[in-house]
Amino acid sequence: MPSKLIDGPSTEPISLSEAKTHLRVDIDDDNSLILALITSARQQAEHICRRAFISQQWMVTLDQFPRPGMNIGSANWYGPQWGDSPGPLTTLNPDKTTGYEIILPYAPLISVDSITYVDTDGATQTLSSSLYKVDNISEPARIMPAYGTTWPATRNEINAVQITLTAGWSNAASVPQPIKSWMLLRIAAMYENRESDMMLTRGSVDSMPFVDQLLAPYRVITY
Fold first, then answer.
1. What domain range is 28 assigned to?
2. How many domains does the chain have?
3. Which one of 51, 68, 96, 126 has the fewest beta carbons within 10 angstroms of its own beta carbon?
4. Which of these ranges, 11-20, 61-70, 84-93, 179-188, has the smallest mean pLDDT?
5. Region 70-75: what's the mean pLDDT?
6. CATH number, position 22
7. Which residues pair with 59 in a beta bridge?
8. What's residue 218's pLDDT?
9. SS3 for the chain, per residue?
10. What are phi and psi of 155, to 5 degrees?
11. Distance from C-alpha of 156 to C-alpha of 173, rounded to nearest angstrom
12. Buried b / exposed e across 166-180, counting CB within 10 Å, b at 16+?
């Protein structure tokens, strides 16, 4: 699912003073470098975890709204209990999905700000929030059509559906400490080694095995 950052985080999970304390740096000469390393470490960890750490707004796009394949429908799921027209939960896949879900990147989801789409006449429409339901308990979060409805038809063109969402923890204090610890270790490694290659006179360089495990509980496996 293509995505584009609209409004980045206003702060970082780790402050300059926290990073300098970890690095045992008490001068200001490298402040700009350390701030850049904080941002780099945060973006790298977000990529590994498939998360947004601090509140940020993204736009994600689809060429059309998702619909279940014709060969996976089950007549047992159609009926008045789900409304008169096909909608969510009218078909079921072996993996317990219906085919209508829009799986959103960048957990944890704060809000779905808008859904717009190009209708079959070529006009851009804003989908009313009453016509879809957001599941922000699941990670990754998902959007489904509201009860008894289905997704509207769209024009056959790229990026016909645009979803604007806000994701991330609301402030630095809410970011889990293991993520911050990983970032501090990564910042220290980049601060100490400022070249892409290392020349050794003896021995070898090995990563401490526990480091990447700090991020393991926070990785979003699929979206």
1. 3-55+171-218
2. 2
3. 96
4. 84-93
5. 43
6. 1.10.3230.30
7. 4, 164
8. 93
9. CCEEEEECCCCCCCCHHHHHHHHCCCCCCCHHHHHHHHHHHHHHHHHHHCECCECEEEEEEECCCCCCCHHHCCHHHCCHHHCCCCCCCCCCCCCCCCCCCEECCCECEEEEEEEEEECCCCCEEECCHHHEEEECCCCCCEEEECCCCCCCCCCCCCCCEEEEEEECECCHHHCCHHHHHHHHHHHHHHHHCCCCCCCCCCCCCCCCCCCHHHCHHHCCCCC
10. -70, 150
11. 44
12. bbbbeebeebeeebb
Confidence band of 73 (pLDDT split at 50, 70, 90)? very low
| pTM assigned to the model | 0.80
Tell the residue number behind the tokens 């985080």, with chain if given.
9
Asked whether residue 159 falls in the same domain as residue 179, the answer is no
Looking at the predicted structure, is the pLDDT value of residue 104 above 50?
yes
State whether 68 and 150 are in the same domain: yes
d(CA 123, CA 111): 25
**Mean pLDDT for the chain overall:** 86
Cis bond leading into 176, ω under 30°? no
pLDDT recorded at residue 77: 44
Map tokens 């490298």 to a residue: 30
